[in-house]
Amino acid sequence: MSETPATAAGERGQRLPGWLRPRSIELPGSGRMRLIETTLLVLVAVLLAVATVNDLVRQTHVNHRLIADLHTWRVYTGHTYHNLSVEQELFGRASQREVVCGNTSPGAPKARTQLCLAIWGPVVNGRRTVHGGWYLPPKSEDVRARRYGCFGEASRGLCTR
Amino acid sequence: MSVAAQSERAPAGSRSEWLTPALASLLALLLLAATVEIVLDGAVGHSPLIPKSPPIAGWLQGLGERLGYRVFLVAILASAGAYAGLVALGRRSTEAVISKRWALILIGALHLVVFAGPVLLSTDVFSYIAYARMGVEHGLNPYTHGPGAISHDPVFPYVGHDWRHVATAYGPLYTLLSYPFAPLGLKGALWAMKLEALLASAGTLALIWRCARARRLDPVWAILVVGANPLYIVYGLGGAHNDLLMLLVMMAAVSLTLVNGSSPRRQGAAAALVVAGALIKATVAALLPFMVLARRSLAPILGALAALIAGALIGYAAFGVHGVDVVAALNRDAAFVSTDSFATEIAHLFGKPGVFPIDHDLLKAALVLIILHLLWRTWRGYDWIAASGWTLLAISVTSTWLLAWYILWPLPLAVISRDRRLLVATLVIQGLFLAHQISPLLAPVQ
Fold first, then answer.
1. Most CB atoms closer than 10 Å: which of B195, B314, B320, B357?
2. How far apart are alpha carbons B25 and B112 in whole angstroms?
3. Do B432 and A59 touch (CB under 8 A)?
4. Cα separation of A5 and B349, whole Å?
């Protein structure tokens, strides 16, 4: 059991013109090409490695911010719940402004009236500043029509009631 | 060399004689232990890493604790380190560090442990089952409806949220192959899918063995590099992904061109198998131009055409025009963006919030250039298997929708290719993918 020699394929391709025949070895000059390819591969690998590390650091910073947001919600409400949801899209992901929602009394996620807090600013003592918020009825998503009891500057234009 | 020098060197030589196999055994044990940890903890359920699933691994409960990000990442990094050590030891040593028997035992144990456990890290297998049940149990065309059309079916709650209203993107051959699993019930179909993935993996490894021997490479090392790869085991096999079936057909095609002579009939059959693989998952079609260009005979073209016509007729008969419109499905999937893709990472590096439509076009252009270069190299006599592997790697790296099991595609080709750079590049990409996952380890959000 062994690989078919390319020459066998070449024998079958004898009817083909020389430039069309299958080759058993690469044409001369592939050594220089290999060097160029290897150099490009190394450059691409460096780019991908730098991009990966950069993204890892960025995500770690985001995680630190989210940890501060969750801690802020717990300190603000006095509840130590773990099932909190974080919304990063409402103010735009690049804004570093998050909305953290959680139940106001013990229960399954979103099963009770929820309190949402809009949080941004620098992390100080493991917390960030609450700039406003709103309530949501039980079992409802954070959409404009469902928000009520809005307070603070953050809720301006985001609530109907 | 003096006698004194000889006597000084003798103990060092004998030390390395037992040290290398001992180190290899230790690394193999670490690899297995880390996999067992993931599976046992995963069997407890209630983990963000384990998809909601019918209780199929309940008999493993009580042996582990709920799988958290931290334990998972430590385990996967430990297994990746052990795997890298094994691969390096296998390459450096002139003698077999791991015998054939021990390699088979290690790979077999890894496979059985994952097979016995829960579905890991992906809901895709439930999509496969949903599409099969749509066709068989509900008389719906999975190429025109998403699983949302069978929201009353028991499989629906387990389908990933992102895929509930998405028609299947898999080839008609795969959809038809999954149909016999539909009447088995949800648990039966799930076990059947897991068994299919297990057998596909075993078949792929057997074919890698044959191909490695045909190319006079070390077959034990070749199957170890693929069969003990943590991404292959935990993500690929753990998620029962149909990529394993695609890899089986791909390696069957490659094997036909390498082993026991390569008559026109075998060449035709190999090309037909590549097309069959593309009717499972379209990606494998990337091999065809390289295969044709390397052989430069009519047989593979005829074989591919015959398989394409047969596949199109079967697909059309079973699913109508949507069943053969692979281009539409590929275009749809190409527009998806995942946070793990290198394209997204590079966008972030240059201060952009994400991938824009122009980036999709640039990436496609880069991929076309790479493929054209590889075609030219193959024309000049470069190893067509390596060229195919590079293409599969380039597809995954330039894709904006990158998932762990996509970077498994080039691995079986890399271990039997004549260009070792391909294996290094594939493993580097896998390493970077894993490195990108570890932010919960550095800053765990609770």
1. B314
2. 19
3. no
4. 47
Look at the block and give the residue holding tokens 């719940």. A81
Report which of residues A108 and B239 the model is more confident about.
B239
The residue extents of the domains of chain A are: 56-155
- Alpha carbons A60 and B73: distance in angstroms, whole number: 15
Using a CB–CB cutoff of 8 Å, tell me whether B397 touches chain A. yes
Q: Is B346 on the interface with A (CB under 8 A)?
A: yes
Residues linked to residue A82 through DSSP beta bridges, in sequence order: none
Per the CB < 8 A criterion, the answer to whether B86 and B28 are in contact is yes
Cα–Cα distance between B164 and B157 in angstroms, integer?
Answer: 9
Q: Which of A23, A52, A82 sits opposite B345 (nearest CB)?
A: A52
With beta carbons under 8 A apart, name residues in chain A contacting B382.
26, 30
Chain B residues close to A70, C-beta within 8 Å = 445-446
H or E element, residue B249: helix B243-258
Report strand pairing: A114-124 vs A127-136: antiparallel
DSSP-derived letter for residue A158 is T
Condensed to tens digits (0 to 9), the pLDDT of residues A63-90 reads 888 899 999 999 998 888 878 888 887 8
The encoded tokens of residue A88 equal 């990063």
> B425 and A60: CB-CB below 8 Å?
no
ipTM: 0.86
State both tokens at A80: 């130590």
Report pLDDT digits (tens) over B339-378.
889 999 999 999 888 888 888 889 999 999 999 999 999 9
Under the phi-then-psi rule, with left for phi > 0, alpha for psi from -120 to 50, and beta for the rest, what region is A92?
left
Q: Determine contact: A46 vs chain B, CB below 8 A.
A: no
